[in-house]
Specification:
The protein has 116 residues and is an alpha+beta fold. It has one domain: Ubiquitin-like (UB roll) (Roll), CATH 3.10.20. The chain contains 4 helices and 5 strands; from the N terminus they run ββαβαββαα. The chain has a 5-stranded mixed β-sheet with strand order 2-1-5-3-4. A hairpin with a 4-residue loop joins β1 and β2. It is globular and about 30 Å long. The relative contact order is 0.27. The structure holds FE2/S2 (inorganic) cluster. The site of FE2/S2 (inorganic) cluster has 13 residues, from loops.
């Protein structure tokens, strides 16, 4: 198990192998958008992983395509629903949730484009 620390809220939760970041956030009341329900069909669950980036498998093409629609994407950007912890580790994973995430379902793709 590892610890997931949501930096902005300064709250820390356990994450077990097989769980993804979105699941842990929602189970613990962290307000993280997830317009597509966690199936890699939006970019609203965009997070930035400050520490522990390598504990998750590399992003696949679908995820990278969705991240192209997210605002302010950086090298440490991921979709929370696609970040499944792979193995036991005692590490603390530091997560930033960008507050400016654009909800494509509510606002449409034009909003995302304008926000770049
Ligand atoms: S919730 Fe839609 S891609 Fe993660």
């Amino acid at each position: 198990m590892a610890k997931l620390h949501f930096v902005d809220e300064d709250r820390t939760f356990e994450i077990k192998p097989g769980q993804n970041i979105l699941e842990v956030a929602l189970d613990n009341g962290i307000d993280l958008d997830h317009a597509c329900g966690g199936v890699c069909a939006c970019s609203t669950c965009h997070v930035k992983i400050r520490e522990g980036f390598d504990l998750f498998p590399e992003a696949e093409e679908d995820e990278e395509d969705q991240l192209d629609n997210a605002r302010d994407v950086g090298l440490n950007s991921r979709l929370a629903c696609q970040c499944v912890l792979q193995e036991e580790t005692g590490q603390v994973i530091e997560i930033d949730v960008p507050f400016w995430n654009v909800n494509l379902v509510q606002e449409g793709p034009e909003a995302a484009r304008e926000s770049h």
